[in-house]
Design goal:
It is an enzyme of class 2 (transferase). Helix 23 packs across helix 24. By secondary structure, the protein is an alpha/beta fold. Helix 17 links the parallel strand 13 and strand 14. The longest helix is centred in the N-terminal third of the chain and has 18 residues.
Length: 697
Amino acid sequence: MNKGIYIATLESHSGKSMISLGLMRTLLGKMMKVGYFRPIINDTPQGIKDNHIDTILSYFNLKIPYEDTFAFTRSEVIHERNKGKSGEIIDTIISKYKKLEEEFDFILVEGSDFSGEGSVFEFDVNTVIAKNLGIPVIIVVSGQKKTWEELLGNQQMAYRAFTDKEVQVIAMVSNKIQEENLELAKKNMQGFLPEEVGVFAIPLIDTLNNPTLKEIVIALDGKVLFGQDFLDNQTGNFGVGAMQLRNYLTTLKDESLVITPGDRADIILGALQANISSNYPRISGIILTGGLTPEESILKLIEGLSDIVPIISVQDGTFNVTNKVGDIKSNIYADSIQKIQTTISTFERYVSFDSLVEKLTDYEPQGITPRMFQYGLVQRARKSKKHIVLPEGNDERILTAAKRLIDMNLVELTLLGDADAIKKTVAKIQLDLDFSKINIIDPVKSTHFQDYAETFYALRKHKGVNMDMAKDRMSDVSYFGTMMIYKGHADGMVSGAAHTTQHTILPALQFIKTKPDVSVVSSIFFMCLEDRVSVFGDCAINPNPTAEELAEITISSAESASAFGIEPKIAMLSYSSGTSGKGADVDRVREATALVKKRRPDLKVEGPIQYDAAVDLSVGKSKLPDSEVAGQANVLIFPDLNTGNNTYKAVQRETGALAIGPMLQGLNKPVNDLSRGCTVADIYNTVILTAIQAQGI
């Protein structure tokens, strides 16, 4: 059975890293354990790790010792080859690969980078390695600065080189192609490749192709004077500020890198002012040349500005610096999270290896890992895009999550709030958000405002609501967003980053209301532990549920688990296991368990049961040896909010588990609540959950 894929190229800076990152994400979504291996890496200074390996291991949290992820450095290969030991090189590579193959379900192998001399030899080595490992190849070729004839020639040469050695080529990727030429690029590949070979074309993405300020600082050995926190800013273009300010301002473009002598205070201050002006493009940073820095009074003025881009001092003169900046090639580093996410979202937008991966192996995973679960969520959301409204449109975390969601083409989004204020916030945090792909609505200025107010009045007049009160409610973003769902103008809502749980949920209870067979709204968290995904409920809504409510929460949680691909094995948690415990609290859990068994005899449920007996197989078997749930529970129902909320947070903090949620259950249409301490990842995941709920699970 094949257990690997080899990613190969025939040139440097082909964008091979994008394929590695995107494909690793795909593989981890389908398999329990995926390894990573590079037969040959670039030479690095003592104590410095290979950047490709460091990025993959760090971002995907792969538990592989660094020394097991590669066989040789480039100079070691050349040295051994010159000694006539080519055979020994291949033997060592095979040995290290096979060691990983024994430990992992699948191995992603990334070929060498073609840095320095000897590229022809290097390409030949990659074909020999792939042949000896017995794994198929994905070929990546860059179209940047090539004619169509050159691109096609390179692709044909690479394909023949592998197939001549009887290495299966399963896909070819044309990378860094102009957007308008993508279909033509695919058509050209299809012209000479067999039908079974997948063909993909990826456009040149400026935000990935252009270096960040951090890369420029490293390349120029610069000193950061200001803006240390914004070194991930990416440059769109660069230019020298040598003319008078009034003329220089007209040359600024989006994400411009300003290069100017350090004593040109007029250019420095003018560029910073232009950056915060709505009449000029944003700049990415400023490089001060000649080893000169502004006078103390100018530095003090800069220090007091509310928005500061990175300002970097370098020793070289302006001419040399400009030439060096033009030669800097962009790379992806382990700490470049935004760049990694953009890379993966670009891959997922233009490449679909799912069917190809399925052909490579008949591996059947047992259970579901967090990576598989998260990958499945993304695929389900993308399959039927839903419209989600985010009432807290001016929150920086909301905006950052919105960009990621839009870039990955997962949902349609509406932000509520003042459009100018939102755009200013986007500019302030240097977020490259495409406003053409997102809706922004100011509730009181909306064409639907009057209709929404009249609808709310009609729904709530029996509760003493008049039209003035209805208009007041509709000016509130939570009420307006909920009404969008009620009227069918949105499919779901996510709020709570800046509002209380009550503020988020109350409008939904008032007019979205619960499903016909549900009397209590509850919540679950999907707890992504190291090797499994568990469902925790209720950890966010009901303080002290009755036995009847606890039974209903349990059934709702089991149905949610099933809907998301988790076969429910339910533990009704308490401070004792089985029949031994006495007291009102344990009796309530015992009664709730009986109700669940009566109403849903098809469900596997155990209760009352202690947490350790529920999740630890040895403990479970000792306490409840005949149970089909003990030690294997994946749906854990807590007896009250105090226990549930504290337990999920303790598990999250102590184990590093990712808690996705809370996801509310029981409403006619999905509304989900965030905590005010939520992260960008929390928002991103909750929006995806909401979109899937809106598909009618």
